[in-house]
Amino acid sequence: MTARGTSRARRILAAALPWNRLGLRARLTLLYGGLFFAGSSAVLWVGHLMTARALDQRLVMKFAKLTGLGDPLTELRLTPTLVGAVPQLVQTEVEQRAADVLQETTRSSLLVMVLTGIVALLLGHLVAARALRPLGRVTETARRLSESRPHERIALNERIALRGPQDEVKRLADTFDAMLDRLHRVFDAQRRFIANASHELRTPLAINRTVLEVSLEEPAASEDLKALARALLGTNARYERLIDGLLLLAQSEQELTVSRPVDLRHVVRVVLEEQALAPRKRRVVVHQDLRPAVVQGDPLLLERCVANMVENAVKYNVRDGDVWVTLRVDDAAGEVVVTVENTGPQVPPYEVDDLFEPFRRLHGERVRSAGGAGLGLSIVRAIVDAHGGAIAARARSEGGLAVTVRLPAVPGAGDDPGEKASGRARLTAAISGDPALHG
After folding, report:
1. Where are the beta strands (DSSP E) in 331-397?
2. Phi, psi (5° rounding) for residue 198?
């Protein structure tokens, strides 16, 4: 067996042992108790030997005292045979009493050791809890950081600030606080970079667009020059969309600056109305099944989230295809569920997760055409994460993709008696063309 196999076998064996399944507090308590019982057993054994030796040396009965204890021995009418047997009786009596004293002493010592051991275990449990309390604070802070979302980590100003002697635990807590300080400075620098990039990247592109538009309006410009200007204008517009998508993706991962109850059904309807008015190259029928639903968040980001889902469903579709948009409330989970499904080309199941990565498209393609920047679902995932939700996608067996978003629902805010009485409200809109702004 190789060294790696031996090491792995040892790890498996160590993980299977009951001792390794206990917490540190329980292990310290058992360790304290075990050491106490081991020490007590040694003391008890030494005491037993010393008591037995002392009894052999000092417990002596005088024959005269024994014969004067009462009339029974006097009335025995001692004969020579009985006189010779009296020392033997005395020795037997001494040994019996010594054994009784030794047995009683051992029994009492065992009882005291058990009772004291139970008290020692309880005290060890309390002492271990007090000693591990600073480590518990470090662990709890690290757990909250690991379970929080990126924008929550940026806003987190919590520190352990452990007080006490400069021991190993104090140095660990101070090191952890220093790491949080460095992370906070890094996230602040990232926010400043995004704010500056929003201006520095857009300004040159805006200037280029203005120059190209002016050249197109120039009467003396030749047709070749105008054709070149139109081509450059299209390229410039594409890069503007790319930068807008990157900035939106970065801003979606930050802390929400606006958070209020949002009627998600109204947001979805607005998005579909805008899609219906956009010029498109192919006909796609959108089916809408919306229920009342209210979530807490930023209305603009939620609108962008739904818009990207619908735009991707329409764009990556087939001619005369279908898109199904459903909105419902999962009362059991307390969540609002938005699902967008479409017909379209077959999507390999192993490529579904890659579609959420920036600049990734179907079949592993990178961005190299006017087909899109590859940021649509990345932006959707960032917005959903910022709102404390979850997103999942699955490939449909008949072609296309089904994307499901779950967001925390606002309790008691989604009831609409009129909507429930009228049943499902369906709207079918004929949509054709290509999105002007999408991922």
Report:
1. 335-342, 390-395
2. -55, -35
Per-residue pLDDT tens listing for the chain (439 residues): 455 556 665 565 455 556 566 777 788 888 888 888 888 888 888 887 887 777 666 555 444 444 444 444 444 444 455 445 556 666 677 677 777 877 888 888 888 888 888 888 888 888 888 888 888 888 887 777 776 655 554 445 677 777 777 888 888 888 888 888 888 788 778 777 776 776 777 888 888 888 888 888 888 888 888 888 888 888 888 777 777 766 776 666 666 777 899 999 999 999 998 888 776 667 889 999 999 999 998 888 899 899 989 988 988 888 889 999 999 999 998 999 999 999 988 888 888 888 888 766 665 444 444 455 567 788 888 889 888 899 999 999 888 999 999 999 988 665 444 443 333 333 344 333 333 333 4
Report the alpha-carbon distance of residue 398 to residue 344 in Å, rounded. Answer: 8
Residues 6+ away with beta carbon under 8 Å from 259: 296, 297, 298
- In whole angstroms, give the CA distance from residue 291 to residue 294: 10
Q: Which residues pair with 426 in a beta bridge?
A: 289
Using the structure block, give the residue that is written with the tokens 């200037």: 207
* 137 neighbors 160 (Cβ within 8 angstroms): yes
How far apart are the C-alpha atoms of 390 and 125, rounded to whole Å? 41
The residues, ordered by sequence, that sit 6+ positions from 232 with a Cβ below 8 Å of its Cβ are: 208, 212
Closest CA to 338 of 283, 271, 279: 271
Residue type, 306: V
**Partner residues linked to 294 by β-bridges:** 263
Q: Is 157 helix (H, G, I), strand (E, B) or coil?
A: coil
3-state secondary structure 282-323: EEEEEEEEECCCEEEECHHHHHHHHHHHHHHHHHCCCCCEEE
**Cβ count within 10 A of residue 234:** 11
pTM of the model: 0.55
Tell me whether strands 390-395 and 321-330 are parallel, antiparallel or unpaired: unpaired
From its phi and psi, is residue 15 left (phi > 0), alpha (psi between -120 and 50) or beta?
Answer: alpha
Report the candidate in 314, 321, 307, 294 with the shortest Cα–Cα distance to residue 407.
294
Gap between the Cα atoms of 407 and 268, Å rounded: 14
Geometric angle at alpha carbon 382, from 377 and 384, rounded to 5°: 90
Using CA atoms, how far apart are residues 228 and 222, in angstroms rounded to an integer? 10
Q: Is the dihedral of CA 275, 373, 337, 399 positive or negative?
A: positive
